[in-house]
Amino acid sequence: NENLIEVVDLKKYFSVGKDRTLKAVDNVSFSIKKGETLGLVGESGCGKTTCGRTVLGIYQATAGHVYYNGMDVHAMNREEKLKFKKSAQMIFQDPYASLDPRMTIGDIIGEGMDVHIKLSHKERQGKIDNLLGKVGLTSEHSARFPHELSGGQRQRIGIARALAVEPEFIVCDEPISALDVSIQAQIVNLLIKLQRELGLTYLFISHDLSMVKHISDRVGVMYLGSIVELASNHDLYEKPLHPYTQALISAIPIPDPVIEDKRNRIKLEGEVPSPINTPEGCKFMKRCVHAKEICGKITPELKEIEKNHFVACHLF
Ligand code: SF4
């Protein structure tokens, strides 16, 4: 089995008030092969961040399973859990909030190493300097504090910190959305370079479809807690099948104004409905131009429509 991650019918519900339930992650299944990048896209509030955190065990799942190298993450003993915590890391959205302002860059990077890897003082500093080089900074940054660095440099520190414990799998949770547009591509290209060098496996979470296209091998589209389409990068962008994916892709800006004027944008009508107490049936129904009677009655399941192309829609 070459899958590093297998997620099966994962659910993460939160109670809201007395009798209401927010289904942040609702029956999500996917797998990620070793060395692969799975992109997870969707509008804000669709549950992609909660999904990433539940996969890492930061949130306890309400139901379902996450397997890491075939082992159930939520049923691991202490020793296995510690190993998993080392092997599976996270890069956060906000490099401003996720770095402790009172710690030096060297200590931020070294903190996780102190827990998981036993090193002498000299080896530790050597490793920190090496990691700084890997992410495009220098050993001089080690004695500095986060506020002395730019947003892009801070995100490089966030990446170095994740790499410090030699992980196999990294959840990149909107790693570029807090950064200047001019810096975003640099960070994504750095992640791609590191993946090649170190054989990393990524779950790349973002609302930016162009960036997801740039980095991912396969892409899952989330809507209100569920994956509505899952396919190879090529198939998803070249022949999207789900009406929601079609609308998202038609809204990606194209730099050429001539093409931009001519193409048919599918406008998404209405707001994203509330994820609290969602009714039976397709959650996209209120915004879907193809909705039929059955769509309001039966929730469509994610089914393989073409080889390795999965869609949850009654049109298929
Ligand atoms: Fe539209 Fe029905 Fe498909 Fe949902 S199941 S996306 S409402 S056609």
From TrEMBL:
**In its UniProt entry, what is this protein called?**
Oligopeptide transport system ATP-binding protein
Q: Which Gene3D superfamilies match?
A: P-loop containing nucleotide triphosphate hydrolases
Q: Which UniProt keywords apply?
A: ATP-binding, Nucleotide-binding, Transport
Q: Which GO terms describe its biological process?
A: peptide transport; transmembrane transport
Q: Per the record's keyword annotation, is Plastid included, yes or no?
A: no
- Known PANTHER family for this protein? D,D-DIPEPTIDE TRANSPORT ATP-BINDING PROTEIN DDPF-RELATED, TRANSPORT ATP-BINDING PROTEIN
The source's superkingdom equals Bacteria
Q: Where would I find the ABC transporter domain in this sequence?
A: 5-249
Q: Which organism is it from?
A: Sporanaerobacter acetigenes DSM 13106
A molecular function annotated in GO for this UniProt entry is: ATP hydrolysis activity
High-level lineage: Bacteria, Bacillati, Bacillota, Tissierellia, Tissierellales
Reply yes or no: does the keyword Nucleotide-binding apply.
yes
InterPro entries in the record: AAA+_ATPase (IPR003593), ABC_transp_ATP-bind (IPR050319), ABC_transporter-like_ATP-bd (IPR003439), ABC_transporter-like_CS (IPR017871), Oligopep_ABC_C (IPR013563), P-loop_NTPase (IPR027417)
Which Pfam families does UniProt cross-reference here? ABC_tran (PF00005), oligo_HPY (PF08352)
Query: Of which family is this protein a member?
Result: Belongs to the ABC transporter superfamily.
